[in-house]
Amino acid sequence: MAARKGEMTQDAEEAAPPTEAGPPALSDAQLFLNRELSWLEFNQRVLDEAADPSLPAYERLKFLGITASNLDEFFMVRVAGLKSQIAEGVTDAAADGMLPEEQLRAVGARAHRMVLDQYRLWREEVLPALTREHGIQLVKPRDLSAAQKGTARDYFRLRVFPVLTPLANDRSHPFPQLRNKSLTLAVHLPAKGRRRLGGTTSLVGVPAALPRLVPAGDGRTFVLLEDLIAEHVGDLLAGSPEVKSAAFRITRNWDLEVDEEEWGDLLSAIQAGVRERDKGEPVRLELVQGTPAELTQPLVAQLALHEPDVYEVDGPLQLQDMVALVELTRGDRRQKPRAGSAPVPSILEQASSVFEAISRRDILLHHPYDSFEPVIRFIEEAADDPDVKAVKQVLYRTGADSPFVKALLRAAEAGKEVAVFLEIQARFDENNNIGWVRKLRDAGAVVVYGYDACKTHCKTALVVRSEDGLPRRYVHLGTGNYNPITARIYTDVSLLTARPDVAEEVGALFNMLTANSTAAELQLSPESRGPWKRLGVAPHGLKQRILDLVREETEQAAAGKPARILAKMNSLVDPQVIRALYEASQAGVTVDLLVRGICCLRPGVPGVSERIRVQRVVDRFLEHSRIFVFGEGKRSRTFISSADWMPRNFHKRVELLVPIDDPESRARLQEILDAGLADNVKGARLLPDGSYERLRPAEGAPAIRSQDLLDSARRARSDVDLKPLLERSQGKE
Questions:
Q1: Phi then psi for 634, rounded to 5 degrees?
Q2: Taking the CB of the first residue and of the last residue of the chain, which one, N or C, has fewer CB atoms within 10 A?
Q3: DSSP label of 530
């Protein structure tokens, strides 16, 4: 499992910076943790939740499924990227000094250990707990009773056999183009006569349209679909009884690369790229443990993979499919679910419309503790309000049944001015978004889906309403996507405001997007803030804005004045920003970071980063909000943002940094940050060697689980004072 305090991992031990000769220079590669290994440590932290015996079995199973899904994406994008760099002969080292080949070796070793942990947990803890707590059993067909075998056999003949297509793999039948992540059965038939010297291999696809878990009579006993097919595969292959078979799974390079200069229409390029995805190069082969060599060796050779790319697992392939068993536990659950729906702020409940409420003051929402419904209402009311003249919105991940797109369609059909920037390059959501482009265009909306070779990742909407004969702008700005499903499981922040200075700059942002105004046309240097005095906008000056804010705190500390940086984000990668944080620490700035995912900053290095603390919280909701506070007391400034501190967010995406002016909203954001830093139940602290130490309450201190604390406070009353409890947790009474 994850390394604990004092248990330096082998990978981290090799990278740990020396301290005997004094602090290293800030340009030293030893001061940076490897991005890919840092991500794997995040996934290990998720896996640690699956290993927590205090959680019910169904919760542990869900975390196990999340780690498996996360690893799939990691291989499809990050490992595939490393392999592409190696194939292209890239010799540039990462900020941590590792070359692509070195990273791939280290990543492979770490991933193999993680997969062993995953399947040990499944076999020895999670599945036995599901059996013990809920009577759920997963068995092999041969272990079924006679009656159950009959039921399974009938299921195979009636439902499975008709949809199977066996594929020979020989000189006249080339190896098929297997789809990414599809389950397949490799079947070896023994030699019969001269025409089959050594035997032949056939492939049988496991139908994705059928349930993976096949019930065997009592509703709580199941066999895997691939095991059922293997049990009867001899009937499929001309009645051959003597066969060997094993399930396998291929992961391919699924990152979508589009050379926009080669295409006149980005939409056509994305559509073509999506169609080509399943032809991506294989990057991983997963096999059931014990697969015969006569099946393994031809597969590895055919896919042009190497030994480190092969993962033999002692359990079901595609563990995330096992999460379907959670539904069986619904009536048995011992842990009470969250009671009731998330609350709506009283100002919204009392007002006749969202616009009336926003006109009174700024409204900050913290999802999922606050309902996401007001954000949906903001666009729906805009679509139906006759006084609304224009609606503009940026959509990144929308989902397949988006209430936002439906409202925008109504607005366009009603003759309102509707402009939608819909990011068709949102990874793995391309098909959904391409479909919405067509529908919005047909309804008369202006639809834009490309800006100066950047992805548009900011989350904002602008409504122009006629009031007393004059236009008034209303704005939504957020850290998360316009997706009601993820809004229930991700923690994010929304701001609804009618402040003229902010709304005017959001209007300028939309004009930039729809006109595709580049930095040169805006007469901006990379360091310039451009026309935005309140907002920070990437790729036009957001990084410099962050660096300026960090350096202001550095100057304060150097002058002997109190200085602090408090930041919450998903990832911290940018080397220049990390060096600026090191300089701040050296000057005396207290730096507290909540980084949920990748963190390439190495905290606690003597002479460099002693004043930097990095923590993360992994709990039932995915921590997704970006919140930043610079300074202390009256001179502090608070922001929310769509951007992590990564090169891609600063240079390859359109992002927003939004100042928060309302005192009540600022106090609430501070409460969120303080709760995260105080979490000693689901929190973990990054150590200098790159591993994480799970936090536990100090002797006599209360247990603080930040998500429970924030949830309870929100349901009790929105202005509950958490400060005394948080101070007690840190021994500050």
A1: -70, -25
A2: C
A3: T
Instruction: Report pLDDT digits (tens) over 555-583.
Output: 999 999 999 999 999 999 999 999 999 99
- Contacts for 617 with CB less than 8 Å, ≥ 6 apart: 594, 596, 623, 676, 679, 682, 683, 684, 706, 707
Read off the CATH number of the domain in which 261 is found.
Answer: 3.30.1840.10
Residue range of the domain that includes 639? 536-729
One-character DSSP codes across 246-261: EEEEEEE-------GG
Residue 713 lies inside a defined structural domain of this protein: yes
* 166 lies in the same domain as 139: yes
**Is 366 labeled as catalytic in the residue annotation?**
no
- 262: pLDDT confidence band, cut at 50, 70 and 90? very low
639 shares its domain with 582: yes
CATH number at residue 440: 3.30.870.10
Give me the number of domains the chain comprises: 3
Two tokens at 245? 């078979």
- Rounded to whole angstroms, how far apart are CA atoms 550 and 555? 9
Q: Are 681 and 704 in contact (CB under 8 A)?
A: yes
pLDDT digits (tens, 9 = 90+) for 223-240: 999 999 999 887 777 655
Per the CB < 8 A criterion, the answer to whether 467 and 355 are in contact is: no
Domain assignment of residue 328, yes or no? yes
Residue 441 confidence (pLDDT) above 90? no
| Same domain membership, residue 416 and residue 305 | no
Give pTM, 2 decimals: 0.87
Instruction: In the chain, count H helices and then E strands.
Output: 22, 27
Options 366, 457, 476, 624, the catalytic residue: 457
Q: Tell me, yes or no, whether 400 and 498 share the same domain.
A: yes
Task: Read off the pLDDT of residues 641-676 as tens digits, 9 standing for 90 and up.
Answer: 999 999 999 998 999 999 999 999 999 999 999 999
